[in-house]
Amino acid sequence: MKRNTIFKLIAIAFPFFLILVVEVILRLVGYGEGYELFHKIISENKTEYYVMNSGVSRKYFKNTGFHSDNQSDLFLKKKTDSTFRVFVQGASTVVGFPFYKNGSFPRLLKHRLSLTFPNRNIEVVNTGITAVNSYTLWDLSEEIIKQDPDLVIIYAGHNEYYGALGAGSSVFIGEHPFLVRTYLRLKNLRFFQLLENGYAKIFRAKKDDGLQVGDSTLMEVMAREQQIPYESEVFEAGIQQFQSNLEKILANYQSHDIPVILSTLVSNERDIPPFISEDLDEEQFRKALDSKDENTGKIAQKNAMAAYLLGQYYLERQPDSAKKYLEIAKELDLLRFRAPEKINEIIQQLSEKEDVALVDMKRVFEARSESGIIGDELLTEHVHPNVQGNFVMADAFYNKIKELQLLGNWQHFVSYQEAYRDIPISKIDSIRGKMIVQDLKRSWPYVLDMSGRNPVRQYHFLQNPSFEEQKAIALYSGKEKWEDVMRLAYHTYLKDGDLENALKVAQSLIAEFPEQARVYEMAANICLQMKRPEYAKFYSDKAEKLK
To answer: Which residues contact 513 (CB under 8 A, 6 or more apart)?
Structure first.
């Protein structure tokens, strides 16, 4: 080989060698973030578990002041033969907003599967992160694969515009999915983090970073493009990124023969008007409706608020027409916190194309909604399910797992009615969730005039709060820890003879601390007092296995 060629190769390789040396040094001195999805903990009986790293969200959010919510579901570091391991991917609906803990559908699913298979170790690991989209799901999929899942459930798509790195998000890198995915790969390098942090330090002082969390709602902080017209360039960019990322995600899992269940998305179409619409003289339009003006239908095809008003007009008159126009209203809403139907179409198409199991959650919810139009019966606001809605979601996935025959003998099948009577969410968590929604609906974007500020929290006006309301306020305000509140509630209910609510608290503690034998013993003791020996045996057997 000529000397010239050797020198050229050295010249090309040297910068990469230098970067490698810097990378090693940065790692040795502990600079930057590892962004591991899971980290190890050891229980009292010396069993090793993994739990989701609460700091992983820092990879996706810059300069927002936002520390994302996620659940803390333990699973065994060393998977046993009796383990059935499910990972659930998504955003705030998966996390369980606004109830969290046992109000989330993954925990309701785990509770029911555990009762169905008492001799199996059922793990349903919630990897949802608030305000993320399909970029994050793709980025996490390789870490999930390493943990040998028996099943992955994906419920996502509402955040393609305003979730981190989305087409209309304030955390924005670019519109091309390949470039954004490359950026996420580079973020794992300490050398790249050094460059990015240096750039931010130099240029941050020279520009206004906009709203921070605390100034307003997270929704406003994340929404860079607050008006995205239907089929506009940004609209189509969101659709493209979702399809590209979901294809990559499914390919990752299929290459490792990991079953996946996809789900269509649900939105509140009946009871939530468009957040932002093209201008409309609502008074004139209502008069046109009353006079049965034929032009109202034409206007409604192009104007979100007109479509919503026409849909409301038809609710008691022509439910099928109401359904049509209320969906149009959601589609034309310029502020895209509800996924357009093109997202559901992609989910259905990829399910069929890639032979991936599908739960048509939209159809499931419609079947349980008045006139087949999804509204406040099952949702708290625009997209997040209430407790019943989360139960319906868990039920749909439970039945799909049975249909796919991913587990053996279903002789202990738990019926819908039996499971519904045993929803393991505490009154306190339920009340706190309702308080959160009350305040959200008095904030931007529900009240556009509230831009840049937050309302006074409603609980300040509560007169003579009950015990549950007092504790819900303590949690919401951050004055008390959840586990302390639950333990106090457990003893309070026992003292008052309220065994049913004491059991729900014990079940909540089991879901949060599944490695602790004493929380199972608490549940077993209550079940004995309630004369439910089969449940008492279930919990006492679980406790014995942990000792």
So the answer is: 483, 519
